[in-house]
Amino acid sequence: MALSKKPMTGMKDVLPAEMQVREYVIRLIKETYGTFGFSSIETPCVEHIENLTSRQGGENEKLIFKILKRGDKLNVGMAKDEKELVDSGLRYDLTLPLSRYYAHHANDLPMPFKALQIGSVWRADRPQKGRFRQFTQCDIDILGESSPLAEIELILATTTLLGKLGFQNFKIRLNDRRILKAMAAYSGFPEEKLDLAFIILDKLDKIGIDNVAREWREAGFLETSVQRYLDLIKSLTMEEKGLSYLKEKLGEYLEEEVYECLDCIMDSVEKVKTTPFQMVFDPTLVRGMSYYTGSIFEIEMEELNSSVAGGGRYDKMIGKFTGKDISACGFSIGFERIITILQDRGFKVPIKGRKKVYLLEKGMDRETMCQVMKIAVKEREEGADVLVAQMNKNKKFQKEQLMKEGYEEFKEFFNK
Fold it and tell me: Distance from CA of residue 54 to its chain's centroid?
């Protein structure tokens, strides 16, 4: 039986032209976030299964690639359930690993701690354009900062990066989990069923408000509560004034601090941003992760019918490891989606210096070849990228492929 040459479903091989774009974006990410004081870290791709299934990852916990125990610990015949077979899994995001990392190393880290993490994550999801089962995530997080300064810095750093990549006039949607809870309490939703209510509300963009209402009713929520929540949504506009309206409408259900926090974030970012984009208050924004405790935000672009970045505040997660809550807020770029958009735009990596190709005729004598290699050494010392290769029969196609990789200057050497 022949071996399969295709990658596994939902995973992909990366060709050199795309790899150049990916490496360029990663360099720009590190450079830009570095100017905001973020430090690069790395965590293992494998986490304890009890961490991954701690009911903090929302629907992603259903998509974990689980890993069997190894060696003598694996006894399939004697196992009564999955718990006796599995002890770990591939991480589905970078936030939970960061929380474990910080809990373990807090004494060796500054306070507040600004972390940058870039790495692969895995989800057994249904693949589609810009969505894979193995993909790269890029997260920035600020741990130990309880004020809106954390959200402001995260948004400014992320939008500065996107501006450098040529993105403008995108939209940032903001909300707060405490506003969602206040709206639910005002409408009469029982507190013990809020997670279910928000899971359904999170489908709004895909199924529409009428189907959200239908699923709420089917889930057993009272008609009066469903109708009151719908009336709230319909009476709001996705603008800054919607936040002021909710403050008055919800009254005692919404703490003054929540309003002041979001108002501060929106006002401050608007005054100091360097990239053109729109910020809107969206009271229907949920974010799928159960670990969010406060502000939540997403970035939307016209090129993709989905968000390309998202994040929020998760002040309770680190406490799950240590018993002591630590303020935490993060923003994750959909790295694969950004790369997809750039490729669709025909993005070319800016070339610094020269990229030369020296093509040698096959069978060239050793002395001539060494002379060419010496020229290449000198060119490299002067800052050029130089590729020395033998000339193919189809020289035109060879040059076209090399041009895709950014090589533009060609010199041909023949036997004499």
Answer: 21
